[in-house]
């Protein structure tokens, strides 16, 4: 391999910039003890040579691996999959690699085994995507010295956490339908045991109570389009149903199919609002009104919080919940 073919190393940068190896190291580590003109020469040499600092070598100096661990559950679901992507993007932007362990079942032993796998790999800290209540007992048993951030867990977990304001998302959806003139809003909830399903149901209930609207019986699905279809077949037989808030867009998709088969026109006869704003939501028939979650922002806040923990900052200074937004499309309108 010729010099032109081999990757540039720090000594190459030092030679081109006309400085010492130690000066290059100070520049790359952000030391203020470097003159501006020297810093500019070093950075120009880095750019010209395409030099990339070796993360392992830097880790030997800082006693960090520059790798974070992520434990996640069932990435087939849109929400957890997008949260994982947002965390990975934020980690790369911060100069960290990511090691991922995906669990098929959620229990104490499974979560702890995943965390121990990551600690054996020398990660600096972990982010646990924990949308299920079953993860709570495991999270209390994490290795004490290990910095950890939990995403989408309930306050009962008692660990530094980042989440979307599910109560506000539900309020936006239900308030939208009530403001259109519907006397009440029916709810197709997510499965028991999920923090998000619990909070979205609570937000629906609180918003109805605040408006003095009656609270209809709750239908429950399992996040899948199939369960939304089955619930839709039941709701289609009830003439009192004029508006439905669905806990995620996949179930809303199945609900729309069931209504179409029964000849129920959306939104002319029944308005429907979903949750998540999946990429297909704008292309359903009709285009789905839904609540959008900013998963990239969840990733950024998770990363910032974990970095604060790594720097021994106040772990109680948690970021505020990420505020969702309502995206109004064609599936909701005033009742007949």
Concise overview:
The chain is of the alpha/beta class. 42% of the residues lie in helices and 13% in strands. The chain is built from twelve helices and eleven strands.
Descriptors:
4-stranded parallel β-sheet, 5-stranded parallel β-sheet, elongated, about 325 residues
What does this structure look like?
- The chain has 336 residues and is α/β, with parallel strands linked by helices.
- Helices cover 42% and strands 13% of the residues.
- The chain contains twelve helices and eleven strands.
- The strands form three sheets. A five-stranded parallel β-sheet has the order 2-1-3-4-5, with helices on both faces. The chain has a four-stranded parallel β-sheet with strand order 7-6-8-9, with helices on both faces. A two-stranded antiparallel ribbon has the order 10-11.
- Helix 1 packs across helix 3, helix 5 packs across helix 12 and helix 8 runs parallel beside helix 9.
- The longest helix is centred in the middle third of the chain and has 17 residues.
- The chain is elongated and about 80 Å long.
- The protein starts with 9 loop residues before the first helix and ends in a 9-residue tail after the last strand.
- InterPro entries: HTH_LacI, LacI/GalR-like_sensor, Lambda_DNA-bd_dom_sf, Peripla_BP_I.
- This is LacI family DNA-binding transcriptional regulator.
- One of its GO terms (molecular function) is DNA-binding transcription factor activity.
- Keywords: DNA-binding, Transcription, Transcription regulation.
- It comes from Nocardia pulmonis.
């Amino acid at each position: 391999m010729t010099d032109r073919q081999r990757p540039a190393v720090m000594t190459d940068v030092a030679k081109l910039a006309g400085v010492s190896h130690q000066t290059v190291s100070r520049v790359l580590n952000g030391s203020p003890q470097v003159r501006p003109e020297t810093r500019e020469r070093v950075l120009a040499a880095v750019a010209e040579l395409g030099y990339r600092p070796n993360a392992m070598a830097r880790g030997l100096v800082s006693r960090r691996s520059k790798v974070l661990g992520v434990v996640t559950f069932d990435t087939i679901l849109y929400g957890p999959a997008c949260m994982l992507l947002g965390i990975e993007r934020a980690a790369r932007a911060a100069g960290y690699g990511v090691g991922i362990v995906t669990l098929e079942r959620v229990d104490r032993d499974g979560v702890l085994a995943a965390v121990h796998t990551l600690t054996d790999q020398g990660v600096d800290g972990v982010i646990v995507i924990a949308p299920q209540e079953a993860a709570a007992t495991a999270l209390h048993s994490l290795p004490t010295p290990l910095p950890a951030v939990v995403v989408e867990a309930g306050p009962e977990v008692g660990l530094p956490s980042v989440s979307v304001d599910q109560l506000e998302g539900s309020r936006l959806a239900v308030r939208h339908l009530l403001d259109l003139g519907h006397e009440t809003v029916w709810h197709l909830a997510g499965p028991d045991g999920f923090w998000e399903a619990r909070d979205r149901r609570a937000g629906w209930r609180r918003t109805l109570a605040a408006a003095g609207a009656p609270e209809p019986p709750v239908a429950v699905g399992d996040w899948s389009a199939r369960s939304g279809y089955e619930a839709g077949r039941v709701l289609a037989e009830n003439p009192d149903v004029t508006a439905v808030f669905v806990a995620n867009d996949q179930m809303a998709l199945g609900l729309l199919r069931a209504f179409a088969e029964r000849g129920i026109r959306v939104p002319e006869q029944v308005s429907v609002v979903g949750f998540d704003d999946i990429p297909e939501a704008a292309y359903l028939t009709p285009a789905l009104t839904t609540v959008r979650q900013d998963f990239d922002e969840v990733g950024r806040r998770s990363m910032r919080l974990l970095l604060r923990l790594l720097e021994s900052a106040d772990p109680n200074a948690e970021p505020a919940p990420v505020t969702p937004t309502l995206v109004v499309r064609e599936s909701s309108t005033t009742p007949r």
